[in-house]
User: Which sequence fits this backbone?
């Protein structure tokens, strides 16, 4: 199993040098988030992930979770590690001080979450899902509900889930059958079955608080009739203490491709007591509070997977001897050269590195936009941040999860046949990471959200704030010869992005299927261009540091060289997506469904 080392230097580069987190935090009123505090938190997170959480990764995969009579037991060591996680105060990091949190920025928490996900994806999911439940209750719950549920969720003694999917419907939530009937005391009785519920049952916490969508009898059909409920595993008294067992049971756990250390559950609600969140039939709107937060979290998983796979592949490539370099012997004292000298291995390693480091910059930027949404006093600035989040969240979720999975495939490939063997741990990373392309909305669903709802739905208005940032950066650096190799491609691709948007809009007026046919290619195109923008910004920071006379020459030179690789070898992939969009949807829809034969 690869030995995980938290990429502390690069995390600090992104937070402190690229995104200037200290000024960002001070402006928003996060006075406690000094650079010393940030450094200390990252350092402690690195120790915990490297020494406690990462060693459980392979154990979790091998043992998996076990289910017996509705009780789920997590793999050896998970319970003790989670207790240490809670004792260290990690669940409280970015939560409201009113409910026992530390009140630190979301962007700091997202950087810490990456380390846990790289170290052990399955383990990181247990506390990770609580954030969505907390965000929903805090945004839409009553004062009584907040006092009842939030303190224990904040301190990690309780965990949370999101219960959306049902056996007969996945993304089409309007087809749900779980019903919620009003009771005399104002609570609701919920009955129905949910599937694919991550961390739906386990032995790590004292209670599990489910956020559940259901339909109240008599509500409108489809999405307009969805309501949202808090349904705890154990009922909770008004003072926040645990009462009797609720009608919530785990019917089974799924036997999966990966993330075996996390329990993916079938949850049955048999007359379970639920508490309405928000107004009846407004659950879909409330649900997006945790869905957007969860999608950024999944984007972060893609970054984490790319980092973990890169670390394993890099160590192996430096050590493994195989063939001689085609440009001459590089290891004259050995029987062969290390495989890292071969161009194709370099291609795979640099692909992983450019995805991990570029993705880290994008996700951290999104998390800063979330900070602004929480704490900015200027409503115009806040609205600008919300618009950028609306555009970039589906791009980051789908693009980075797809490229994270690609990175794990490269990790297996670098190892060759050994990559296919379980003991090396590379194939586990690949199996664990595929889920990130699926849950919280598949790549296709994110693409439709981006193109149909966000782009076409606003007639392109959602593009303007981020496009302005790109334009301003390019104009500021267009006369800098050292930046020409980055600025010129970005300007050309940004122009083409606009042209593609107009092209699809025109075609969709004649044939709405053009939106569905173009959507994934459009999202991937947008992803490559967006990451190019962040790589250009990182290259500029590195150039400035080198010009100022830094002692870390190798670090900053590597950043520039990786940026050059991205521009020359990754960004051109967007051209293929542009060509597919231009070719239209006709070939996709030419066959009638009954003509698909084998």
Assistant:
């Amino acid at each position: 199993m690869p030995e995980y080392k938290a990429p502390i230097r690069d995390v600090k580069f992104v937070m402190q040098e690229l995104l200037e987190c200290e000024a960002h935090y001070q402006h928003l009123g996060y006075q406690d988030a000094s650079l010393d505090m940030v450094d200390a938190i990252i350092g402690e997170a690195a120790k915990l992930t490297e020494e406690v959480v990462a060693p459980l990764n392979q154990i979790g995969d091998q043992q998996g979770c076990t289910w017996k009579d509705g009780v789920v037991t997590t793999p050896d060591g998970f319970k003790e590690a989670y207790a240490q996680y809670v004792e260290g105060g990690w669940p409280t990091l970015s939560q409201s001080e009113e409910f026992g949190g530390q009140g630190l920025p979301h962007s700091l928490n997202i950087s810490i979450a990456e380390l846990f996900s790289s170290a052990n994806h399955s383990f990181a999911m247990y506390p990770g899902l609580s954030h969505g439940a907390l965000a929903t209750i805090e945004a839409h719950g009553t004062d009584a509900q907040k006092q009842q549920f939030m303190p224990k969720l904040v301190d990690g003694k309780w965990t949370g889930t999101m219960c959306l999917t049902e056996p007969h419907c996945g993304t089409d939530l309007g087809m749900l059958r779980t019903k919620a009937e009003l009771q005399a005391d104002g609570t609701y009785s919920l009955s129905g079955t949910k599937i694919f519920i991550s961390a739906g049952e386990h032995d790590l916490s004292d209670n599990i608080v489910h956020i559940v969508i259901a339909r109240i009898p008599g509500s409108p059909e489809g999405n307009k009739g969805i309501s949202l409920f808090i349904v705890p595993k154990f009922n909770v008294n008004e003072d926040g203490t645990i009462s009797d067992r609720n009608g919530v049971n785990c019917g089974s756990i799924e036997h999966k491709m990966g993330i075996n250390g996390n329990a993916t559950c079938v949850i049955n609600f048999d007359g379970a007591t639920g508490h309405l969140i928000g107004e009846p039939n407004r659950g879909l709107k409330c649900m997006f509070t945790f869905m957007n937060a969860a999608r950024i979290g999944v984007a972060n998983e893609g970054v984490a997977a790319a980092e973990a796979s890169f670390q394993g592949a890099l160590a192996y490539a430096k050590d493994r001897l195989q063939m001689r370099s085609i440009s001459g012997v590089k290891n004259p004292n050995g029987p062969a050269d290390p495989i890292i000298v071969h161009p194709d291995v370099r291609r795979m390693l640099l692909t992983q590195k450019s995805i991990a480091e570029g993705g880290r910059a994008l996700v951290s930027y999104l998390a800063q936009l979330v900070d602004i949404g929480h704490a900015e006093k200027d409503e115009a600035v806040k609205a600008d941040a919300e618009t950028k989040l609306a555009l970039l969240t589906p791009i980051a979720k789908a693009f980075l999860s797809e490229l994270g999975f690609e990175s794990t495939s490269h990790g297996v490939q670098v190892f060759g046949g050994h990559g296919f063997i379980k003991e090396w741990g590379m194939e586990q990373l690949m199996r664990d990471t595929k889920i990130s392309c699926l849950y919280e909305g598949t790549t296709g669903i994110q693409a439709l959200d981006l193109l149909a709802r966000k782009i076409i739905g606003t007639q392109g208005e959602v593009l303007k704030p981020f496009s302005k940032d790109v334009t301003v950066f390019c104009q500021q650096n267009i006369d800098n010869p050292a930046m020409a190799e980055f600025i010129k491609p970005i300007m050309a691709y940004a122009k083409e992005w606009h042209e593609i948007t107009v092209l699809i809009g025109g075609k969709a007026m004649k044939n709405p299927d053009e939106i569905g046919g173009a959507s994934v290619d459009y999202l991937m195109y947008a992803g490559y261009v967006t990451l190019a923008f962040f790589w250009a910004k990182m290259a500029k920071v590195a150039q400035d540091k080198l010009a100022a006379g830094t002692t870390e020459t190798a670090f900053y030179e590597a950043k520039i060289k990786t940026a050059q690789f991205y521009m020359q070898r990754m960004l051109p992939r967007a051209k293929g997506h542009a060509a597919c969009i231009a070719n239209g949807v006709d070939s996709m829809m030419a066959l009638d469904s009954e003509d698909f034969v084998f």
